[in-house]
Amino acid sequence: MITGKSFIGFTQKSSGNTAYRTINPKLNVENEWSFTEATSEEIDEAVQMAWSAFKVYRNTPEKERAMFLSSIADEIEALGDELVSVYCSESGLPEGRAIGERNRTIFQLRSFAEMLHSDDWKQISIDTAIPDRSPAPKPDLRRSVLPLGPIAVFGSSNFPLAYSTAGGDTASALAAGCPVVVKSHPMHAGTGELIAGAIVRAAQKTGMPEGVFSNLNSKGIEVGQRLVKHPKIKAVGFTGSIRGGRALLDLAAQRSEPIPVFAEMGSINPVVITQKALEKNGSKWAETYAGSITLGTGQFCTNPGLILGVKSSELTAFTKTLAEKIVTIDPMVMLHPNIKSAYGKLKSEVTDQNGVQVLSEPIAVENNYADQAVATVDGATFLNNPKLHTEVFGPFSIVVQCDNEAQLLEIIENLEGQLTGTIIAEDEDLPSLSSIVDEMRQRVGRLIFNGVPTGVEVCPSMNHGGPYPSSTDPRFTAVGTHSVRRWVRLISYQNMPESLLPNELKNGQN
Known about the structure:
Distance between the termini: 48 Å
Structural class: alpha/beta
Largest sheet: 7 strands, mixed
Shape: globular
Number of strands: 19
Mean pLDDT: 97
Number of helices: 14
Radius of gyration: 24 Å
Strand content: 15-25%
């Protein structure tokens, strides 16, 4: 049952006066539940409890943490149809998407639980002493990792499960030994409360310290600001807009003790399509990309918002087919009226620029449904107008018709950092693609060949991050078990007696 209260440790509280409701974007009506925003006192209590829990949880054996994560997965499964129903009511997304995202969330939790049964993630290094080395003895040095401390996790708007309350940030932080305080996203507070309850039950069943997890309701930005500024929060996980992520990054840097903010933010995910690919399979790729652009109503951070090619009759045919195909796909609802409004505004700002031509026929939509569209512009205009580089969060893409490959490479070189880049080509193109590959990989975190960027596989080899502003630190991924490295720091022990070393650094353990 949804109460509308925050979880402060294991207890639900709602002592504040600021109430709000979530919206069913499909019906364009408020949902029945009322939520109370966490007060400054509740925020401080949650963080203080997290700090106390950290002193215990950081020393909890990895196998017990693994049991905790597995138990969270079990409790989420046990929520059954209620979770799916609330998810759909608060997001407008279909039942199939809810079930798929729930399964991904559970898989992520179990993946981190499995990771904890091995020490491979601890970046262990052992250099034994050489006491008779000349001219100076070599000390015994052994390196491992330590958890940072309590982590503030911000729920995302577009993934109510996989990137929110028990999503990748929370799962990886808990695996690392860090308590988590979640700032619940106001668009899906009911979904967040159900998941928070599952985490709390799992913590109680597996004997975790109270304060290892809290979930704070939040209508505006104040709760998040207080969390980031709290001296006992030691890092931040965020998925959202460039504006929001940059604000948190600046706020964290202004603290007397600056802390890292691992934010996954905006990306237009450039796609390069070669002449030979256009000649052989232009129509097929147009249909494929019409589906990718509109997938999830375009509300993915990996949505292909930019397609690059060299001017030709085949590129003209491709753009025409793409524009025709995209309007044959039934419009879908966006996550919230505010997101629909922002989509319309940003799309208009791009399409109203000089030299931009909208190719797709207008689509009549109502309420919070999105009118998908394709536009085109020449390479010189795109290069000289930064507004055309803006992410339009929704089912929209712009095709840039370059004069030649040199101009195409110049465009790639001048793009901001991106989560993904894609190359569509034929086998005959392979000997001539090195320059494009070289420029593209300097700007992206994941380079794709003959595919679409939408869809992020959860596995150790996945990198979900990229140069700024796609993320705040391109050295780390937000997806896969390697994302745990965001929440730990290295520590070396020099000439430490074996009895005082952590188990993974003792002789004979590796």
